[in-house]
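Shall we go through a protein fold together, starting from nothing but its sequence? Label the sequence line and the structure token line clearly, so we can match residues to local backbone shapes. Would you write everything just below, so we can both look at the same thing?
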Amino acid sequence: MTIDDEEAAGAATLMDTLPDRHRTVLRLRLAHRLPAVEVARILGTNVEGVLLLQHAALNLLRRQLAAGAVVDGDNPANGQY
């Protein structure tokens, strides 16, 4: 497994901790690069709702990382840093 693969696996693990709707918004917006208006259409909501969910999802991920959630390969105890 390469470092990129390890980082991707760690990011996927963190994404899996999000509530379904938050995770869906991030995947559609970031992985599939869909505009907010298209995500809103898919989810049956409005653009503001999509942007709020996206913002909330990113904040949840930031808090998890700040609280010590470790993405594979980012653990200082494993000698990489």
About this structure: Residues 73-81 have pLDDT under 50 and may be disordered. The radius of gyration is 15 Å. Residues 2 and 61 are 23 Å apart (CA to CA).
